[in-house]
Each structure stands twice: as structure tokens, then as C-alpha cells.
Specification:
Layout lengths: L3 H15 L3 E6 L2 H5 L2 H14 L5 E6 L11 E5 L6 E3 L5 H14 L18 H19 L3 H21 L4 H17 L3 H7 L3
Parallel strand pairs: 1-2
Antiparallel strand pairs: 1-3, 3-4
Protein name: (2Fe-2S) ferredoxin domain-containing protein
InterPro entries: Thioredoxin-like_sf
Length: 200
């Protein structure tokens, strides 16, 4: 039987092989959670789903002890050192910039924006709907009872519908919005009915 240190090295090597090239580690400490880290986590997962195949993963981590800069995301790359820290990630554009930074730091071409959220091209309705989706995700992260959770889920569903309508005229944006809507609804919206049944 191999020595324990040999086994440990083998396990670490296997773990490194499985892990994505770049990991976006979202702080889930109390302050970050209060300032919307759950929304950051979901938004980054959505952006990474659009950038599929580029080796970017998202995970929740414990408190990073940078509470004055919350919400905080650490970009951990297999290739680039040291760890990059992105502070005050508090809107969809910041999330997109974080993914771009992760891809650029890993030596990958960033190309077109993952989500299509670019301030120069995005129309007023699209910006408003993205903002509404973001606020719904933040409310969902802060919900502590069934009533507030069900209200946040309804708000999210309305925001997703608004985003689909706002992107309807742009084929690529509409396709992205449709994929995002399907993922978000699969993740959250089926829980609305269960939450509503539990309302007092």
C-alpha cells in the first residue's frame, strides 16, 4: 500500500485535474451575504454558463475577512498567481467584468461579452430588466421566511419575463435571455408554488 503522503499527492493531482482552470470564489460571509453575494453567485454562474467550455467555475467560499469591500470575489487560476480579488461586485456589469478579468488573467481571449450587457449597446428596457433581475436575486438571497422568499421569487419571474420582452428585437440577446430564463426558472421558480402553499 502506498504511503499516506503519496496518496495525498495523488488525490491533490486528481482534484487539480478535475477543477476548472479558473475558479470564481464568491465570499458567503455574513456581510457579503447581506450585501447580495447570493445574487453575485447566481449571476456569475449564469455568465459562466454562457461562456461554457472556457474552464471557468463558480463556487461559494467562507468569509474572506474583507467585509468593508463586500461583496468580494476571488479569482483563482491554475496558471496565474497570485489570486486576484475583485471588490464591491454589486451589479450585473461588475459580474461580467469579473468573468472577463478571469478569462483575461487565464490567458484566454475574452471576445464578446458573455451576457451581452454592455452599457453602450444595451437599451433602456434591457438595462431596467437586468437591474430588476439583479434586485430580485438580492431579495431572494436575503429572504428568511416563506413569505419574503415567495415574493422574491415572483419578482424574479416578472423580471425574467421583462428581460425576455426587452431582448426580443435582438436575436443574439434574445437567445441569451431565453437560455438564462430557462436556467433561472429551473433553479428557482418551481419553488414558488411550494412557498405559496406555506404562506400564513
Amino acid at each position: 500500500m502506498p504511503a499516506p503522503d503519496v496518496l495525498l499527492r495523488e488525490l491533490q493531482a486528481r482534484r487539480e485535474a478535475i477543477l476548472p482552470h479558473v475558479r470564481l470564489c464568491v465570499c458567503s460571509g455574513h456581510t457579503c451575504s447581506q450585501r447580495g453575494s447570493e445574487a453575485v453567485l447566481v449571476e456569475l454562474e449564469e455568465l459562466c454558463a454562457e461562456a461554457a467550455g472556457k474552464g471557468v467555475g463558480v463556487e461559494r467560499v467562507g468569509c474572506s475577512h474583507q467585509c468593508d469591500k463586500a461583496p468580494v470575489v476571488h479569482i483563482v487560476s491554475k496558471r496565474a498567481r497570485p489570486v486576484l480579488i475583485v471588490e464591491c461586485v454589486d451589479d450585473p456589469l461588475q459580474c461580467e467584468r469579473t468573468v472577463r478579468l478571469a478569462l483575461a488573467g487565464d490567458g484566454q481571449p475574452t471576445g464578446a461579452p458573455c451576457s451581452g450587457i454592455t452599457s453602450g449597446l444595451m437599451g433602456l428596457f434591457e438595462r431596467r430588466s437586468a437591474s430588476a433581475r439583479w434586485e430580485a436575486l438580492r431579495a431572494l438571497g436575503r429572504a428568511h421566511d416563506n413569505k419574503s422568499r415567495s415574493l422574491a421569487l415572483e419578482q424574479l419571474d416578472e423580471a425574467v419575463d421583462a428581460e425576455l420582452r426587452a431582448c426580443a428585437m435582438d436575436g443574439a440577446a434574445a437567445a441569451r435571455a431565453s437560455r438564462r430564463a430557462a436556467r433561472l426558472r429551473a433553479r428557482f421558480v418551481p419553488k414558488v408554488d411550494r412557498a405559496l402553499k406555506l404562506r400564513p
